[in-house]
């Protein structure tokens, strides 16, 4: 079989200096043009890389009218200057940024694997794709041969073609002369990405130790949907250049020292703390269950007696190969990317097939418990099918559990769905998953995500019940777990005001990669006042933005606390470890930046993202509102399930002797106090960030970062 090439470019791969190639690969799928953009020298100083590059390209290249399926929408994949250095842990990360089908504003999702390091070795800091192809295509970038091509997507048979994992594997083998090796990687999106608004992008790479192709995912916000909407099925990158030292850092010894220091802390401390290197993120299931944070039945409850059936040791014993270090990129000794071999599927259209499964992450397990299901085999299969279809496990799970609660509360019935959709009903959850992926039956409603499914349910119910649409929508708003159009990730925030803000203020919507404060706040009580919460809600998003800009994984910093952090003023910031990151940055770039410089660099990016949100109508206080379910017990049954806890909380707030006699009055009072607290938090955070009370940056805040131009002024 020959690939039918539509257009090609022969090129000389630009070299890497001090972490950058200073080139972006631009591909327009409307005109099938391929070009190299040579960046001006100050571009990297202002926009750093990764998320910063995606923000700048999208801020300049799109408008307030751009939607996910507009030809001018850009799909940007970018690492950063610190990506691609196996001597430093976590350097395989990149971000995918675009205008989201769920939120209608900028979204980005970070993802691991070998794709971004190889793209950089191919000579590019970023790949920016515009236009919509009228036929399905693949893009191949081959620095060994010095050629970049757009070709008609080859077919490997109907079943293989529809699966993001199967297609990627077949394509990698095909373009690499029938072999898998570490010098080639791919990104793909499957049929589910085409049929839903929450499609993911898979990053496929060859794992020598496991002897198979593995995958990581850019899960949030529908990046895969944009990729398939553009007609792009896959991108492959190949380079056989050596990777160690490939960034050509200014101070090679400094890079080596910083990496060795971080690796030492990880290997000494992780086995005594979270044990991510042995257990992966499923270790979190037990902790979350213990502290009432694990979402059960659409976040109604945070704990369940059956949860022990899915604690990490179950996955370790039954599924994970125990002794393989599972880094998603070379050199990561935290190695949390667990996986399983030769699992025979029991459910769904591919039952009886034997597959390797990458995961589950905690989030995927939480998505399944949110449906009231505690079956480890189902979690494994849900994980595999979502990856194969190209679906976000979080959005799929949260939308399903929202619909289940609509049934519980009488807003939906078997008549509309076609079958029983009840808590814990594995068969119907499974059926809805497959219907959603292929765009059939009630899956068409689920495929739209919570925000749009809610509008559909409200309209049907209001019409049938003869009620005003507004009233029905208000009731559904209480338990529809979305903000700005994005589904919540898998942490119950009812008892952590700081994490409520972590979700509500997150610019892309409620994903914890901007601020994960739930343990610091709820469990360790390190943020006791509105002011300390507000400071954390400014500081953590800025440092986390930096990680997404430079091409690094955050976990070795945030999930492994340095032994010396305890004696610092703010242990949660883990400053002794951050010092290694700053050292690595300066050694690579030849700069002399302080941590404050790093935060300032990030703040510029953060404000550009805020401006994009304002441009798309998602930037003010009203867009930062969260559902009542996220603030406390939205319905009486939630209060009843923990009435002792809530009564004690209320007594603490009111003082002895002030408690209402009636439980329903207590519940109503808790609701009132929680809403007031969230509004006070908004005031404190906006002040801390230099925003107006409506959540809009003040002109002086923008001016500080040289962002107060005419375009920005029009949005204030
Ligand atoms: S800590 Fe986990 S996610 Fe991060 S780079 Fe290492 S293996 Fe990948």
Q: How would you sum up this structure in a few lines?
A:
With 716 residues, the protein is an alpha+beta fold.
Q: In words, what does this structure look like?
A:
This protein is an alpha+beta fold. It has three domains: 234 residues, Aldehyde ferredoxin oxidoreductase, N-terminal domain (Aldehyde Ferredoxin Oxidoreductase,  A, domain 1, 4-Layer Sandwich); 213 residues, Aldehyde Ferredoxin Oxidoreductase Protein, subunit A, domain 2 (Orthogonal Bundle); 185 residues, Aldehyde Ferredoxin Oxidoreductase Protein, subunit A, domain 3 (Orthogonal Bundle), CATH 1.10.599. Helices cover 43% and strands 13% of the residues. It is built from 31 helices and 17 strands. The chain starts with a strand and ends with a helix. Bound molecules: iron/sulfur cluster (SF4). Iron/sulfur cluster (SF4) binds next to helix 23.
Helical amount among residues, as a percent range? 40-55%
Determine the CATH topology of the largest domain: Aldehyde Ferredoxin Oxidoreductase,  A, domain 1
CATH-level-4 superfamily name of the largest domain: Aldehyde ferredoxin oxidoreductase, N-terminal domain
Please indicate the percent range of residues in DSSP E strands (runs of 2 or more).
5-15%
Bound molecules: iron/sulfur cluster
* Physical arrangement of strands within the biggest beta sheet: 1-9-8-13-10-11-12
**Count of spatially separate domains:** 3
Regarding CATH, which class of the largest domain? Alpha Beta
Largest sheet entry: 7 strands, mixed
């Amino acid at each position: 079989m020959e690939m039918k090439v539509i257009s090609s470019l022969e090129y000389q791969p630009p070299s890497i200096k001090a972490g950058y190639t200073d080139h972006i690969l631009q591909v327009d799928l409307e005109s099938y043009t391929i070009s190299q953009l040579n960046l001006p020298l100050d571009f990297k100083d202002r926009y750093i890389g990764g998320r910063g590059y995606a923000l700048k390209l999208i801020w300049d290249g799109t408008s307030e009218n751009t939607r996910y399926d507009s030809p001018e929408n850009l799909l940007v994949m970018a690492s950063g200057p610190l990506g691609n250095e196996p001597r430093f842990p976590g350097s395989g990360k990149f971000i995918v940024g675009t205008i989201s089908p769920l939120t209608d504003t900028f979204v980005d999702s970070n993802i691991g694997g070998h794709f971004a390091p190889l793209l950089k070795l191919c000579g590019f800091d970023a790949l920016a794709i515009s236009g919509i192809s009228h036929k399905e295509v693949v893009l191949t970038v081959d620095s060994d041969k010095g050629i970049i091509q757009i070709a008609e997507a080859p077919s490997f048979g109907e079943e293989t073609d529809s699966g993001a994992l199967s297609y990627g594997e077949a394509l990698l083998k095909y373009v690499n002369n029938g072999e898998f090796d570490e010098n080639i990687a791919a990104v793909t999106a499957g049929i589910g990405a085409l049929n839903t608004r929450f499609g993911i992008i898979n990053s496929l790479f060859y794992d020598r130790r496991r002897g198979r192709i593995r995958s990581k995912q850019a899960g949030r916000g529908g990046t895969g949907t944009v990729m398939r909407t553009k007609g792009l099925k896959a991108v492959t990158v190949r380079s056989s250049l050596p990777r160690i030292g490939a960034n050509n850092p200014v101070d090679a010894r400094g890079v080596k020292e910083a990496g060795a220091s971080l690796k030492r802390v990880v290997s000494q401390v992780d086995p005594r703390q979270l044990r991510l290197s042995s257990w992966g993120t499923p270790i979190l299931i037990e902790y979350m269950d213990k502290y009432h944070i694990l979402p059960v039945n659409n976040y109604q409850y945070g704990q369940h007696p059956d949860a022990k059936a899915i604690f990490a040791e179950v996955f370790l014993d039954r599924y994970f190969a125990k002794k393989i270090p599972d880094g998603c990129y070379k050199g990561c000794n935290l190695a949390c990317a667990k996986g399983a071999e030769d699992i025979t599927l029991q459910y769904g259209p591919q039952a009886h097939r034997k597959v390797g499964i990458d995961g589950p992450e905690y989030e995927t397990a939480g998505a399944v418990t949110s449906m009231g299901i505690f079956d480890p085999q189902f979690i494994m299969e849900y994980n595999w099918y979502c990856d194969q279809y190209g679906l976000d496990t979080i959005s799929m799970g949260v939308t399903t559990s929202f619909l289940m609660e609509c049934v519980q509360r009488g807003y939906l019935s078997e008549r509309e769905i076609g079958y029983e959709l009840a808590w814990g009903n594995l068969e119907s959850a499974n059926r809805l998953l497959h219907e959603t992926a292929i765009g059939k039956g009630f899956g068409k409603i689920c495929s739209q995500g919570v925000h749009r499914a809610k509008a559909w349910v409200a309209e049907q119910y209001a019409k049938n019940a003869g009620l005003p649409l507004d009233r029905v929508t208000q009731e559904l708003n209480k338990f529809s777990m979305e903000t700005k159009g994005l589904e919540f990730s898998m942490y119950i925030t009812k008892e952590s005001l700081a994490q409520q803000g972590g979700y509500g203020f997150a610019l892309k919507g409620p994903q914890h990669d901007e601020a994960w404060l739930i343990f610091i706040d709820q469990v360790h009580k390190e943020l006791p006042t509105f002011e300390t919460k507000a400071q954390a809600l400014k500081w953590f998003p800025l440092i986390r933005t930096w990680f997404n800009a430079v091409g690094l994984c955050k976990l070795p910093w945030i999930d492994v606390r340095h032994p010396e952090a305890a004696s610092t003023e703010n242990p949660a910031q883990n400053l002794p470890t951050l010092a290694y990151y700053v050292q690595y940055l300066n050694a690579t770039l030849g700069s002399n930046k302080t941590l404050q410089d790093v935060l300032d660099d990030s703040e510029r990016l953060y404000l550009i993202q805020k401006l994009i949100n304002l441009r798309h109508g998602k930037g003010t206080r009203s867009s930062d509102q969260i559902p009542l379910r996220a603030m406390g017990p939205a319905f009486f049954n939630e209060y009843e399930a923990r009435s002792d806890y809530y009564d004690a909380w209320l007594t603490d707030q009111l003082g002895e002797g002030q408690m209402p006699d009636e439980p329903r009055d207590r519940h109503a009072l808790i609701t009132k106090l929680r809403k007031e607290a969230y509004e006070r938090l908004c005031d404190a955070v906006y002040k801390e960030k230099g925003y107006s009370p409506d959540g809009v940056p003040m002109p002086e805040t923008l001016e500080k970062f040289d962002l107060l131009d005419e375009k920005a002024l029009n949005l204030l």
